[in-house]
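Question (not urgent): is this output format expected?
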Amino acid sequence: MLADILHKIAGQFQEEPHDYYPRASLAGTDRCIRQMVFWAIGEEAKPLPGRTLFIFDDGNWHEELSADWIRQSAFTLHSRQMRVEIQEGTLIISGRIDGIITDMMGVDRLWEHKAINHFSFERIWTGELPVDYITQMTIYLRGLQQVNPEITEGLLLIKNKNQAQFLELLVRYQFDTVEVIEMVKSTGERKDIGERFEGITHAAFEKFALVQKHVQEKTLPSRQYERDHWRCDYCSYNEVCWAGYKEEFERLAADVELDQEAAGLCAYYLESNMHLKEMERERDALKEQIKQLLREKDVRKGKAGDYLIERKLQTRESLKKENVPADVWNELKTVSESEVLTIRRAKTTEVK
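Got this back:
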């Protein structure tokens, strides 16, 4: 009664899209600049799916829940949603911080909260630093230092929405250089990071200036991602961005002589591919050998030393096209385009 209508209700009551302006949350390198240009010129955006709106709303509530628990601690959380801004020339980048946290020694730090899925959470913990989040924090820290130069550090608190785990990144910002000092998990595990990013806010201004330039010149930057990338799937400008791409693709230059750097990459790719195929053949042969051993012994499940082995039956359903009326099949099928890269050695002509 409810599961199939809640997302639809959210879709019907979503707010009108906000006007574009340079904001800290857009400043990172992962945010597609082409999307930002569409937004800035007022291109009509496709309404967001109701499920996406639920995801955004979940993130806001996770932040409030974390803030409530922080208030039960010895830390003081204040300045929630305070607006900060930085400026270079005529460009201003602004945003609203999640808050400032004061420890028992009276030291103030920027507090930023993110709630993400389990897989993204694990990628960060295993070393893939969230550069866009760090960029956003850096802009906030630079803005806060204009009011209070003593605020040099920030805590990025990241919540695993699936398991309610936390990890925390401590960052320090001075002279447009931000350093990720350490990462701590709610299990007590701790990692020293020591990775530095220089000129991070200056790069953000360059990005927004480029958006402004494209708007003024009525041009579009190159696409940042391939068509089947998840960011394109979730983008509100997906359809207008990729409209006419087939014709655009056909107009691209052909029979071009590339440099030796490209040749070296191609040679390395083919060599890697050769080794990969050899390993896949070896893996398949070993797999068949193990299955044959189990068949000979009439075994479905067993243990070999430290290894557990199991054969399972899997059922896969599919539609037979010949049994489906053509009009129904056309409604069921989906067509998508993706780029395929082919590399092979050119034929050489022998000189006699």
